[in-house]
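Subject: sequence -> structure tokens, single chain

Hey, anyone have a minute? Need the predicted structure for the following. Not urgent.
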Amino acid sequence: MDFEINKDNNDKTFPGNEKEAEEALATVIKYLGEDITREGLRDTPKRILKSYKRLFGGYLQNVDEIMTTFEEDNVIPHDQIILLKDIEFYSTCEHHFLPFVGKAHVAYIPRDKVVGISKLARIVEIYSRRLQIQERIGNEVTQALMEKLNAKGSACIIESKHFCMTCRGVEKQNSVMVTSSLRGAFLEKIETRQELMTLIKN
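Reply:
Had a minute. Here:
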């Protein structure tokens, strides 16, 4: 995925002390019994911090900066479901600092505002590129859509594989976690919820 979030973060930095973070990472490497001075590891703390700007780039941007809306009162039927399926995402589990990856399906029912379809993918990107749990990502996405668009309903269905389950712990390689955050019409009306699930499956 190559969202604009990469470009937007070029001049932004995390609030912490970079030198202290680098030293902390070096300490972890030494804790493992490795020689931090050998060629392959000498610059590893710097490389890790550089990768964090991408992996945790969601901390460097907020939804307000990208949420350009359009008033479409005479164009969009107000009972229409707008759905973007199969949004690939990458996140990091806040419990074990291991990745979880998958796809999100994001939908909303407009009242008087719509948003460019790519912005739905970017909202997922902003919230997932942080230390997270899967349940929170869905809740944050649907809350943002309700607040920023004054939507009649919003939904975020997420399916993902968690490395904390595949490479440690119970080590179940094929397990997939599914969560759903539903608000407004998607939560209150069973027929609307059923229509959404049909659209996602088709």
